[in-house]
Amino acid sequence: MRQNKPIRSNLCLSTPERIVVQGLDLPNEILGNLSLGDMAWLEITGKAPTPQQSAVFNSLLVTLVEHGMTPMAIATRLVYLGAPESLQSAVAAGLCGLGTVFAGTAEGAAKMLQEGIGSAGERDLGAVAAGIVAGFRAQRRGIPGLGHPVHKPIDPRTPRLFEIARDNGYEGRYVELMKRIAAEAERVMNRPLPVNATGAIGAVASELGLDWRLCRGIAVIGRAVGLVGHIAEELRNPIAKEIYERVDDEASEHLR
Amino acid sequence: MRQNKPIRSNLCLSTPERIVVQGLDLPNEILGNLSLGDMAWLEITGKAPTPQQSAVFNSLLVTLVEHGMTPMAIATRLVYLGAPESLQSAVAAGLCGLGTVFAGTAEGAAKMLQEGIGSAGERDLGAVAAGIVAGFRAQRRGIPGLGHPVHKPIDPRTPRLFEIARDNGYEGRYVELMKRIAAEAERVMNRPLPVNATGAIGAVASELGLDWRLCRGIAVIGRAVGLVGHIAEELRNPIAKEIYERVDDEASEHLR
Amino acid sequence: MRQNKPIRSNLCLSTPERIVVQGLDLPNEILGNLSLGDMAWLEITGKAPTPQQSAVFNSLLVTLVEHGMTPMAIATRLVYLGAPESLQSAVAAGLCGLGTVFAGTAEGAAKMLQEGIGSAGERDLGAVAAGIVAGFRAQRRGIPGLGHPVHKPIDPRTPRLFEIARDNGYEGRYVELMKRIAAEAERVMNRPLPVNATGAIGAVASELGLDWRLCRGIAVIGRAVGLVGHIAEELRNPIAKEIYERVDDEASEHLR
Amino acid sequence: MRQNKPIRSNLCLSTPERIVVQGLDLPNEILGNLSLGDMAWLEITGKAPTPQQSAVFNSLLVTLVEHGMTPMAIATRLVYLGAPESLQSAVAAGLCGLGTVFAGTAEGAAKMLQEGIGSAGERDLGAVAAGIVAGFRAQRRGIPGLGHPVHKPIDPRTPRLFEIARDNGYEGRYVELMKRIAAEAERVMNRPLPVNATGAIGAVASELGLDWRLCRGIAVIGRAVGLVGHIAEELRNPIAKEIYERVDDEASEHLR
Questions:
Q1: C-alpha–C-alpha distance, residues A85 and C100, integer Å
Q2: Closest residue in B to C84 (Cα–Cα)
Q3: Residue B208 located in a structural domain
Q4: How many CB pairs under 8 A join B and C?
Q5: How far apart are CA D6 and CA C246, in angstroms?
Q6: Which of A144, C49, C128, C238 is least surrounded, with the fewest CB atoms within 10 Å of its CB?
Q7: Alpha-carbon distances, residue D152 vs A78, C241, D157, D187 (angstroms)
């Protein structure tokens, strides 16, 4: 016979008169005091952010909100075309595309950095970076957080994110290691491989103390905002039907 | 032969050196300047918010972030248990539950109010409210935005949201109509039916000029934040496996 | 203090040695004996199908598997492009688009027919049909299951589905009512409005005794099969990246 | 300037009078002739199955339809509780949980076998199996398709699936290699590690010639059927609300 284990959550207490989130009274202590980004910090870490944490974390969240007609954004618009009564499902469908290929890579960068720093011991970060780059190359895997198909030679979001981190006291060893990995990769592979936005997010999120397994959540939150924005535009200027009809026509043209 | 129509989006221009969102340079004009909630406003309306719009809109977004172990939150945790490599899909799965029964009702309230004000003409808002209540009753449909199974006699979020709206100059005819509908419904049905949080959100979002079809998006954005919070707690203190095993055991016990 | 209610399911008993589904031993009584479509019938109704039920139900399930590059299929391919490690999420994303606009309409047709027959009493089906058509017109709502934007003058799937139903003893009053509704709608609106595939599915599913709330499930099952087919083709001949890049380029061209 | 590449699909041609799927006329050649499982084969491979392929492939599809109150099934029921108007999204939410932990492992087994046979050359399968087991152990990764937390000492689905494969001429080198891997793993780790259902599916699907990247699709199709079955039962005997309320009560009890 199995023994029950307790089921507990500290996130919320809801009574007839009160709603308490992470120990704070929602109507009186949160509403009007915490912005959405600060609320995200409270939800994830259990504490309201300092002004510095708020500045840095909001900049991470904002970075991935909008990047044009991505596969996710097109998917959201197409699903909305079929089920306009379920806006939530259209956003959900788009979010499903936030995997290993596009914005999900912040997670991989943070994992690499947190494991790297965790096992660095007395070693110099240059040596740690060299070991990491060699390890990825030995497994023939791409190094997360480096290079970008469009934004060249540098990803313009990266220096700005590092600047915001530095201005708020969050540019430390993780950011340093990320930069050293980029430098080592460029040296070894002999081509430009600057830190991209997801690499910067992975590094700065690590400075903030976030578990690498949650870094994809930063992208998920930001992109959820952006996908609602795409639906807002789709309502003003619908294009999903045109995309669908063009694709359907062209794809079957050769069968006619 | 069908004629192609143009496919256009104004949300983002991305070049090798630049990312421009809604006409603003992302690294230089947005990062560090706009918080996540303000970015949501920019995405949805096309303009950066005034301080008043920011205060009111952020309070709407924050309201629905966290409400405990809702069906959505449990679903997200269970899906994460099965596919921990796809955090985005776990959040997506939870969002799918944000339909007509729970938080999706902000949409219905906003629709009711926007259609009510749109057709009010010279009529007094009390008369408009009476017509709306009579209409729902004739169709035997519940009036969106009224009453709450837990928060009684009043939903503590509602007066606070209306207060924030008033303090920032956004308590106008939509809020007034929502209150009048509640009063009329209480009078006709002879039981307490105060405005609940989704009713307040529908009313205040209408004051902000948001299309009722986007009001569910406010809940979607907020809940996406909350569901990432549930995954963060699940990582620290896992309970999904216990929920699954208890349910599975009990459900099949009678077949043994 | 709330009182627990029992949590029970009859679907499956799983012990170390056995798996029993709906009372049948999975390895010995189901595998090799029931095809996938028959298993679907077992799951939904609790009993293995007769040969007639099998023939009719499989034809319903097969009808909506594939209809080309629908919005759902494109969404699945785009999500797969972003998250190829999560095939399940790509199918899920596409399914989310199966709402009120496209294949979800079988549900509406079945609801209309089941309510119509349920309240018919002694009335002639022609009178019932006239009442239904008048009711939809009074509410300015489209009648589910009639007409098709592409398949004109008749939807070629409909006569075949009705034929299979008839050959197996399942063409009764629901099919009759569906046909009468089409005839009445054509008469009143003075244009061709033949029964389409979802109307036929709604009618035949009603003949099989399926609750209208499950009729969308027929489309969901069929389309899940089809969406895996689209991923199979995407692996052989990828087109999602081309769709994305063309749309992204054209959509932002005017901003350059 | 980018050059457009063609967008082509061979799955379906739809004209006013006809719907042709994979070269077969849907109303006249498919409906009434192909069952749902056979249609799945047609969709994925482009050809109608032989009777042997049909028997084997249907048994694979049927295996994973139902396994009780899995995390996926509970998630589907909870999402349906919140959004009963969107059955498709409830199924989609459940499918999202079909990842690396539960049924998704058929994919890993098939990958292991297809790469193993692909690189076997002249080597004996015992040697190939030894190399595979050693490789997984060196990387401290679990071997996909072996062992089961509940079904011990053997998974009763496995011998039956292998029997059906053998009876239809599809028990070859992939099945052989899977068995050898199990034997080698048991020998090296000195504990029972029999082939489980997903291991059997991965092996038999490889015999059928299916790309390992599609093997998760077998589980997705089967489970989509099962999740509709759970919704059917939820309609007859609702339990999602009870699950939700119990969890919510217990989780926040310590905060009161």
A1: 7
A2: B86
A3: yes
A4: 55
A5: 11
A6: C238
A7: 46, 45, 11, 17
Tokens representing D103 are: 């049924």
- What's the CA gap between A235 and D16, in Å, rounded? 30
B89 and C86 within 8 Å at the Cβ level: the answer is yes
Residue at D103 is within a domain? yes
**Which residues from D are below 8 Å from A83, CB to CB?**
86, 88-89
Q: Rounded to a whole number, what is the distance in Å from the CA of D53 to chain C's nearest CA?
A: 12
Q: Do the strands C12-14 and A19-21 form a parallel or antiparallel pair, or are they unpaired? A: unpaired
| CA terminus-to-terminus distance, chain C | 64
Q: Which of C9, C85, C251 lies closest to B85 in CB terms? A: C85
pLDDT digits (tens, 9 = 90+) for A180-203: 999 999 999 999 999 999 999 999
Give me C167's structure tokens.
Answer: 């050959």
- C-beta atoms of B32 and A55 within 8 A: yes
Cβ atoms < 10 Å from Cβ of A47? 12
Structural domain boundaries enclosing C180: 47-256
Each residue's pLDDT tens digit, C31-84:
999 999 999 999 999 999 999 999 999 999 999 999 999 999 999 999 999 999
Which residues of chain D neighbour A10 with C-beta distances below 8 Å?
255
Phi, psi of B172 (to 5 degrees): -125, -140
Gap between the Cα atoms of B188 and C186, Å rounded: 43
Contacts of B95 in chain C (CB under 8 A): none
Number of domains in chain A: 1
Per-residue pLDDT tens digits for D193-213: 999 999 999 999 999 999 999
Residues of chain B positioned with their CB less than 8 A from the CB of A219: 88
Distance between CA atoms of residues A252 and A7, nearest Å: 53
CA separation for the pair B162, B169 (Å, rounded): 10
Q: Average of pLDDT values for D72-89?
A: 97
CA distance C45 to C10: 11
Whether residues B232 and A217 touch (CB distance < 8 A) is answered with yes
Non-local (6+) Cβ contacts of D1 within 8 A are none
Number of Cβ within a 10 Å radius of residue A256: 7
CA angle C244, C249, C253 (to 5 degrees): 155
User: In terms of pTM, does the model score above 0.90?
Assistant: yes
- Encoded tokens for C65: 């598997």
Q: Residue A253 sits in a domain of what CATH number?
A: 1.10.230.10
Q: How confident is the model at residue D9 (pLDDT cuts 50, 70, 90)?
A: very high
- Cβ A99–B93 below 8 Å, yes or no? no
pLDDT at B1 over 80: no
- Cβ within 8 Å, pair A99-C84: yes
**How close is the nearest chain A Cα to the Cα of C39, in Å?**
28
Name the pLDDT band for D81 (thresholds 50, 70, 90): very high
Burial class (CB in 10 A: 0-12, 13-18, 19+), C63: buried
Cross-chain Cβ contact A39/B65 below 8 Å? yes
Whether D149 is in a domain gets the answer yes
Task: Judge contact between D228 and C214, C-beta under 8 A.
Answer: yes
The answer to whether position A2 is within a domain reads: no
